[in-house]
Amino acid sequence: MMESVWPYLQSLQGLPAYALLFALLFGCGIGLPMNEDIVLLAAAALTLKGVMEPVPLMVVAWFGLVGGDALVFHWGHRYGTRLLRKPFLARIMTEARLESMQATMRRYGPAYIFVVRFMPGVRTALFLAAGSLKMPYRHLFVYDGAAALVELPLLVYGVRYVGGRWEEILDLIHRFQSVIVSAIVVLLLAVWLYRRNRPKETRS
After folding, report:
1. Within the chain, how many helices (H) and strands (E) appear?
2. 93 domain-assigned
3. For residue 180, what pLDDT is reported?
4. Checking phi first, is residue 80 left (phi over 0); if not, alpha (psi -120 to 50) or beta?
5. 61 pLDDT above the threshold of 90
6. Does residue 46 lie within any of the structural domains?
C-alpha cells in the first residue's frame, strides 16, 4: 500500500502533505494495513527534499500517532469485549488473545503503555486491551505521548543524519526497538518486583 501512496506524498507540498501524513498515521493506529514506522521514515526522507520541515512533521505525526491510539483505546474503554462480536475485529483479535493482553497490562500496569509504542504489530491490540480495562485516559496520553516524543526525533533526525541512505536504517530501527523494549520491560519488571516485595511500613 505504501508503494501506491509514496509517489502521491512526494508530489504534495506544505499543508496537503502534512494532512496526508496525519491521515496515514491516524489510519495506522486504527488498523490500516500499513507499517507506521515506514510511513514515518518516508516522511522524514521528504524533509531532505523540502517537502516538509522536521519540527512541523513531528508535531503533526505526534497528533496522528496519539490520536489513532486514543481512538482504539476509547473503543476498548467504551465497548470492551462487545467489539469482538464484530466480524472485522473478530478476525483480528480473538477473545482469548484479548484476555492474554489484558493480563499483560494488569501485570505491568499503565506504564506498560510506554513500551507498547515501541512494539510494532501488536500496538492496536494492546491499546484496545488497555482501554477495555477502563484505564484512565490520562494514562494513555501521558505514557503514549511521552513514548512518541522519544520515537519521533529518533526517526526523523536519524533519517536526516544518514541522508539518502534512509532506507538502510529500517532494519536498524527494528533492532533498536527490540533493544528498547527489552530494556524497558526488564526495568518495569524490576520496579514491580521491588514494590511487591518491599516490606510494608508499620505504623508507630
Report:
1. 11, 0
2. yes
3. 52
4. left
5. yes
6. yes
The set of cell numbers assigned to 57 is 512533521
Class of residue 158 by CB neighbours under 10 A (exposed 0-12, middle 13-18, buried 19+): middle
140 is a domain residue:
yes
Q: What are phi and psi of 135, to 5 degrees?
A: -65, 145
- The reply to whether 178 falls in a domain is yes
What pLDDT was estimated at residue 44?
85
Q: Is 129's pLDDT higher than 90?
A: no
| Statement: residue 9 has pLDDT above 50 | yes
Is the pLDDT reported for residue 70 higher than 90?
Answer: yes
CB atoms within 10 A of CB 12: 16
52: domain range? 2-197
DSSP string computed for 99-114: HHHHHHHHHH-TTHHH
17, 80, 84, 168, 187 from 158: Cα distances, Å: 21, 38, 39, 11, 25
Total domains in the fold of the chain: 1
